[in-house]
Write a structure and sequence with these properties.
The complex is a heterodimer.
Chain A (H helix, E strand, L loop, with lengths): L4 E12 L2 E13 L4 E5 L6 H8 L7 E6 L4 H6 L3 E4 L11 H11 L4 H14 L15 H12 L6 E5 L7 H18 L2 E6 L2 H7 L2 E6 L4 E7 L14 H20 L1
Parallel strand pairs in A: 3-7, 3-8, 5-6, 6-7
Antiparallel strand pairs in A: 1-2, 1-4, 8-9
Chain B lengths: L1 H25 L10 H10 L1 H35 L1 H16 L6 H8 L4 H25 L3 H9 L4 H37 L7 H10 L3 H29 L4 H4 L3
Helix pairs in contact in B: 2-10, 3-4, 3-6, 3-8, 3-10, 4-6, 5-6, 6-8, 8-9, 8-10, 9-10
The chains are: A alpha/beta, B mainly alpha.
């Protein structure tokens, strides 16, 4: 089996004025293509750090990491992943369309190819009518949809998401989760999703990785065996509540350990 | 809506000038203290061709210095933003030089580049304009949002692409606020440098000469020309700003 993410004994320490902090210690994590993996844990557990190591925005202090069968550096250069952050990080001097075109521009896709791909992506996230709008003319949820469309530009096999719905209100958040589920099914892309919301992790993922802090490490791996495709009603099913409880208990145990 | 917005300032202007005229006549104020607007206007009309040709020469000095100072400011900003060591080494000195009154160098530049050459005036202007442009542009180039930098890295953007697609657009608002300072500075620099001597057919010399002969309405008419030039240059900067960055908060708030 080829893993899309293969981390072995991965560690990351940050050294600053106040000494060194062990952000991640001894991380073993294998992710198969097509999985939807959530990383959940208290702040400071290193979940965002782990995401950044996979994206080669940070470098590990020790251990081995393979992304899409390659060195993470090569994977980043090859555009093997798309990324979305908590803030939409759209460029306000570009229209919605040109924001989505940005990664395609950087990959030297010709103007025609860029345009048709960007329009296709914006249709997928339901923003076809907002192509020529500027980011400030959109609501927070719409901006985040643009950011997701942008992340999917080059059909990456891997999508990295760092609390992308963290700044949205509860209603918008649930509809965005629904939409992300649909995009995940339609594109077949693997998702690594950082969150601190238990219902979000349970609703979205096929597997939830529970982490604890000081030092950041994995304490539990919980398979989320809810049926696919997941619709809103699943949130009201008994199994959903059982899984919520299981993740919550795992988080509490993790806290006691540290 | 637009007409309504203009009404108040036009009324204020007309009222102010009328009040000024009335006070001068009512209290019989001497022309060397404050000439009446009508006297200034008469001089402005009588000497129209002369003062505008002086104004044009002064404008050449101001714009020449502005262009040179701005280009140098941008080039140094780019270098200083690119190499952190250079920035850390150079910025304290830049701030120190910026804090010093640069017009004080005018007599020296007059000697250095020749009293009669417009270059001596341009040099003063260029030096005055250089620091605000350099300091602001550097700040703009350096201050890209860390999350956006991360995004650009994630998309495998090269340093050049980051400069072009992120840092330069981010620096534009900083650059334009520098230009709004630099444009009035350039006219101030040119006119003050002219006060220290040189050809007679420029605004600064005309103002000093007429003032020495107690022809204050003439001096004020020349000041009116410099004001018109300053406001025109400033308006060009505002128009360019709207054209280049219609997306910026400061501009879309005004819409």
């Amino acid at each position: 089996m080829d893993f899309i993410v293969d981390a072995q004994k991965l560690s990351k320490t940050f050294s600053g004025r106040s000494g060194t902090v062990e952000a991640l210690s001894d991380i073993d994590l294998q992710i198969e293509p097509g999985e939807f993996v959530s990383l959940i844990g208290p702040s400071g557990c290193g979940k965002s750090t782990l995401l950044r190591l996979i994206g080669e925005l940070l470098h590990p202090s020790a251990g081995r990491l393979i992304v899409n069968g390659k060195d993470p550096h090569q994977a980043r250069l090859d555009g093997d992943y798309g990324i979305a952050f908590q803030s939409a990080t759209l460029l306000e001097w570009r229209t919605v369309l040109r924001n989505v075109e940005l990664p395609l521009e950087l990959a030297d896709v010709d103007a025609h190819g860029r345009r048709s791909r960007a329009e296709e992506l914006l249709a997928m996230v339901g923003l076809s009518d907002f192509v020529d709008h500027y980011p400030w003319q959109l609501s927070g949820g719409m901006q985040q949809r643009v950011a997701i469309a942008r992340a999917l530009g080059q059909r990456p096999p891997l999508l990295l998401m760092d609390e992308p719905f963290g700044a949205l209100d509860e209603m918008t958040r649930e509809s965005m989760q629904q939409e992300l589920m649909r995009i995940w099914r339609d594109t077949g892309t693997t998702v690594v999703f950082v969150t601190h919301s238990i219902p979000e992790a349970v609703f979205l993922s096929t597997r939830t990785i529970v982490m604890s802090s000081r030092p950041g490490r994995i304490t539990h791996r919980i398979d989320i065996d809810l049926p696919q495709p997941r619709q809103f009603e699943i949130r009201e099913s008994p199994r959903f509540f059982e899984l919520l409880t299981e993740v919550r208990e795992a988080l509490r145990q993790g806290e006691k350990l540290s | 809506m637009r007409a309504g917005r203009l009404t108040a300032p036009v009324l204020a202007f007309v009222g102010g000038v009328a009040l000024w005229e009335a006070l001068v006549r009512l209290f019989d104020i001497e022309a060397f203290i404050l000439p009446a607007p009508s006297a200034i206007w008469t001089s402005f009309v009588t000497n129209f061709a002369d003062i505008w040709s002086y104004g044009f020469r002064t404008l050449i000095e101001a714009v020449g210095g502005l262009v040179v100072g701005t280009i140098l400011g941008i080039l140094v900003a780019a270098a200083v933003a690119r190499w952190t060591t250079l920035r850390l080494g150079a910025m304290p000195f830049a701030a120190a030089v910026n804090a010093m009154p640069i017009v004080a160098t005018a007599p020296i530049f007059n000697q250095l580049f020749g009293l009669t050459s417009p270059v001596s005036k341009m040099a003063v202007v260029a030096l005055m304009v250089f620091f605000p442009v350099m300091a602001n542009t550097t700040r703009g180039l350096v201050e890209a949002d860390p999350a956006r930098l991360e995004l650009m890295r994630a998309m495998a953007a090269s340093p050049y692409e980051i400069l072009r697609r992120l840092r330069i657009p981010t620096s534009l608002p900083y650059f334009f606020s520098a230009m709004k300072v630099a444009v009035p500075l350039s006219l101030i620099g040119a006119i003050i440098a002219e006060y220290f001597g040189g050809p007679q057919d420029v605004l600064g010399q005309y103002i000093t000469n007429r003032a020495q002969l107690f022809q204050f309405p003439d001096a004020w008419a020349a000041i009116l020309v410099s004001a018109v030039l300053g406001i025109s240059m400033y308006s060009i900067v505002l128009a360019a700003e709207r054209l280049v960055m219609p997306w910026h908060v400061s501009i879309r708030a005004a819409e």
